[in-house]
Amino acid sequence: MNTPALPPLLAANPRLDQWVGFPSPGRVRVSTGRVEIGQGVLTAMLQIAAEELDVASERILLQTGDTDLTPNEGYTAGSQSIQFGGVALRMACAEVRAVFLDYAATSHGYSRADLAVRDGAITHRGEATPHDYWSLAAGVDLTRAAAGQVPTKSVGDYSIVGRNASRTDLPDKVFGGSAFIHDMVLDGMVHARVVRQPRRGATIANIDEAALRRAAKGPIEIVRRGNFLAILGADETVVEAVAAVAPNHVTWDGVDPINPYQEEARWLLQQPSIDRTIGPAPPAEPTPGTRHDATYTRMHIAHASVAPSCGLAQYRDGKLQVWTHSQGVYPLRAALARTLKLDPTVISVKHVQGPGCYGHNGADDAATDAAVIAFRQPGKPIRVRWRREEEFGFEPVSPAMVVTAQALVDRSGRPTDWTTEIWSGRHTSRPGGGGNLLAAEALPDPPPHPPAVDGGYPPGAGTRNGEPLYDFPAKRIVHHLIAETPVRTSSLRGLGATLNVFAIESFMDELAERAGQDPVAYRLSVLTDARARAVVEHVARISGWRVGLPAGTGRGHGIAFARYKNMAAYAAIVAEVVVDEAVHLTRVWCAADAGLVINPDGALNQLEGGIIHGASWALKEGVRLDANGISSRDWESYPVLRFSEVPEVTVELVEPLADRPCLGVGEASGGPTVAAIGNAVAHALGARLRDLPLTRERVMAALLRA
Amino acid sequence: MILCEQYRFELGLKIPMEPTTLIVNGRSVSVTADGDTPLLDILRNHLGLLGTKFGCGQEQCGCCMVLVDGHPEKSCGKALATVAGKAITTIEGLGTPERPHPLQQAFLDEQAGQCGYCLSGILISAQALLDRNSAPSRAEIAEALDDNICRCGSHVRILRAVERAARLLREGAAR
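YS: structure for the whole thing
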């Protein structure tokens, strides 16, 4: 039995009725602040609640991401839903069950030890009683605070957790239901599109209103406040057509051009930065050993959700209702309150599913657009759906990065001192405080731009996974946070871990090669963490890893490993590639240890998704810039991995039913996949590519150099 | 028959438009809208068929895929006037939870999806493939789905689901 301390999210939302209720006979209400963003979290939460409450999951009505109804769990981000949100829900449910059994024992004279629950009904020594959760509910006060003293179930007693559960949200999506916020239809709904400021701080010089109206094949309304400009109308087709040509009919002042050279990351090296060192001071010179270093880069990366963002809002009777696919309904509410100068209590923000976001995309901005318009148009339900080019052009992207790995190596070829030096724009600029929302910045009296921060380490943001898990005697991160970037940047799946793991794991292969050692054996020689060793050994085994295959044959394999944030799930990847002029990714194997896994198929789905996503980053993705900002505004100029480019994928979980804490899995496989592909390409070519993505042009250049 | 009244506005005048007839999921419908209106907008906003999704409006992502006289087409780029009289099949025309199409059953069996936004378009592309090839290879399935973007990385499961659906359909035909 497990009796951990009160989990932080339960401490923050201690009332049991914030998590569980019994609204009508046979029904259980379970609330989670976590939201479904394609990761299957609601299905896992249902499993957790059903298991600890001992009710059939069909009885549970799950409330999710709603400032009126659910606990405040901040953002659904950072692979923390199960590791933190799930653990809080599990303990709340266990305590609710115990409170009911305590009450049944005292009010009906049973011995507490003889009582149990079977699908919501109270049993006594295994026999039915007349009592159940619903008949007892009137006598039980769930407004009490959780004490955190009730043990949760032992893994051996699980019958729901740890077994594959079908995604509860999938049928609606397969049968063409209206599952998404884009599908919401409100009575009298008004469609809106925003004419965006081309750059931060740009001011409207002129609006050719006549031209806009000529482009409209139906009635439209033009709404302007400060530099926020929107086209409204009842007919979406009409509004969309006007929005498409609107940039031609609005002129702006104060549009600072950017240098397209900033598309590649090395410009970061010349920028002023906020610097910090994490770890011991560098060794005094001279020190014994040989010094090696190598520098790795990547471009800005887009979230590139499959559909552009959407938000709905209605301001009525002094109350503002907002529907959003944001990852954080409470932080968005706080940001809207600041933007509109409203009391947060008059704002309700409700999550409705959207396309997979993988981080901070345009969702919060689209919701704010809708809220700003709705606030000025009382009564009207406003729906803002961004245009595709708007999502590509104006969503916050993941910053370009440069990472230098540097090692002092002893005679055996192993590092005695390691430095990961990181140059990066900000990886976190979510809108909690009211800043960093496009609409807010366009209004009169815009909020101050939030300061650049990287957060504490671990987990860090740009610094994430900057420290290798290997047993080097001295390891440090030197971080240069560049506050001013040409385009808005924020969090994308993995944050800095993607390039940091690419750099560390590429450099490990380079050091192994110098030492004349096999990459798997070399890693294991400096890795004592048993769970880390287990995933490396496991993936080597299932991939049929062979030692000593010659390099430069056009066919290659590569391995990479990381534990996400050095705190979440462990993942080791082997990639197999064929390289002619371009890289063809043929197979990927993954072994992962995520501790106790609630829904094994759900975890596999996340790891597989991370592998494909990582492959797309490694081989294809990079935001293009021109003087006007982001120029890659469609799927032609921002190519992603397509079906015919997808490898065969094998993923195995290591000990998914072990009695160990759950470890977040959603971002575990991306970084190691990018690195394994890099190592496989280096093996295939006999030459190393250190700049992402590994495009045909870069392969050709490497072949010419070799 | 469903009738949707619509007007166009020119120089401030409200001019009634001629209806266009098309067959959607086997039903004849008459829509009065500007001939330039994208079929996607007709389906979603005029007919209330919300299963077909908007992804890009540029015919690049496949979220809005429908069958037009049996051919997979991106409905965001198909003007209403060009589909007059034609038979349109949307995701709603495939199957229902009570009577799932083998493709839908296979996608559920394989748990082939994450956010699921791309799935209606992918199911339609897969249907078009299976209509002309009852035993496609993995490479043929991938090629048939190359116009469809999935960003969550559910590709491997989706490929497996289409293989499974093909098998279900062949077994159904053999019975």
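YS: worth flagging: The longest strand of chain B covers residues 19-24.
IM: good catch. Also Helices of chain B lie at 39-46, 102-109, 119-132, 138-144, 155-174.
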